[in-house]
């Protein structure tokens, strides 16, 4: 028990309620994001139907890591979007109809996360930002908790970086259709469910294409067939050749 | 943590002494990569790989480590990318202010000094950036400056920094610096230097896990900057 006089720690030292991977992929007409809807409290599955992909104006942001920090970041971004639409500023960015694009939001988030890390009190997240870039082309970028930014055609945070990225790297083409991109992401989400013990099969997708931003309701992946794989039904040693999982 | 074990035939005694473990958030990450630059009588060649790593993960195979601060001066940086990005933003702003105040862009030796004071300004919470500055100086001669993380700098004929530094510098010592060679030191053209740097990066990419994917090479002359890329192994 702590003695009464000891002050509480004010700086983040470890995340408590967390979300796992977020995946993103650029396809021919836009960007698709996917994430499961599980919040974990260490090894406990604390909440199983929580969206981790959110739309703010024309941008979709997905977060892995500490969920309360994501909630705070969304508050800040919503306040910024409101400020934009309700104040007049002598700046072409604000007087143009397009307002803040995803690329602007990405840069803003980078500044936010870098300044918090420089005070040793980070937002403990890895964020994916999707939408359009300054030139109107599909945009997908990530920012991590120390402000490292990466812009690419496919990005995965958390465990997805190890399990999903190899698949995304292999299968990505610049002319992927929406159906192909969705199938690829769902395949990656299945694999994450099987191998990441903080993942669930209940997922959510988000799409930024043309001028629309859509975030889907959560739905369950169909993993029934996969559980029937030989490797799960027979024990090691009975399989031909393989002898493995 | 230390473990003391004494075992006899009948029993085994294990005594463990452990030091307290402190968990602490680190504001830095090492994102790897190698940069190098070689200067000549009227040119400077600067090269950098394009891989961004974090731990054993490759975050991207196509991120540049080169940043033109003026049209005659390029900053090549390896280390922690978020600090490198911040450093570039700060230098861009200071360079712009200089240009507004003096009605001319900064020349390379001035940029070199500015980089040094900018780095030292964060002496007690450094930018984790290992820099090589390459440019054409006021006389039109190629210049290379190498830095440590807190701003100590020196003008040299050639330099390298980053995770593959130890593979590149000895090679450049022999081939550019003519060390341990009996022939007279040759004067190389920019094209010859580009080929030598490609070899240097091939070697570094072979042995350094953080170096690979592509090399971006920029040649700076008084006429401007020309860029080319060269593929490396992706393993």
How many strands, what sense, and barrel or not for the largest sheet of chain A?
Answer: 8 strands, antiparallel
Q: What's the total count of β strands of chain A?
A: 14
Write down the secondary-structure element order of chain A.
EEEEEEEHHHEEEEHHHEEEHH
What is the count of DSSP helices of chain B, taking H or I runs of 4+ residues?
4
Secondary-structure element order of chain B, N to C: EEEEEEEEHHEEEEHHEE
Roughly how many Å apart are the termini of chain B? 35 Å
Examine the secondary-structure arrangement and name the CATH architecture of chain B. Answer: 4-Layer Sandwich
- Tell me the number of helical segments of chain A per DSSP (H or I, 4 or more residues long): 8
Helix/strand/pairing class of chain A, anyone? alpha+beta
In the CATH scheme, what's the topology name of chain A? Glutamine Phosphoribosylpyrophosphate, subunit 1, domain 1
Distance between the termini of chain A: 46 Å
Q: Pair with the most extensive interface?
A: A-B, 19 and 20 residues
From the alpha carbons, calculate the radius of gyration of chain A and give it in angstroms: 20 Å
Q: Which spans of chain A have pLDDT < 50 for at least 5 consecutive residues? A: none
Helix and strand composition category of chain B: alpha+beta
Largest sheet of chain B: 5 strands, antiparallel
What is the CATH first-level class name of chain B? Answer: Alpha Beta
Overall mean pLDDT of chain A: 90
Average pLDDT number of chain B: 92
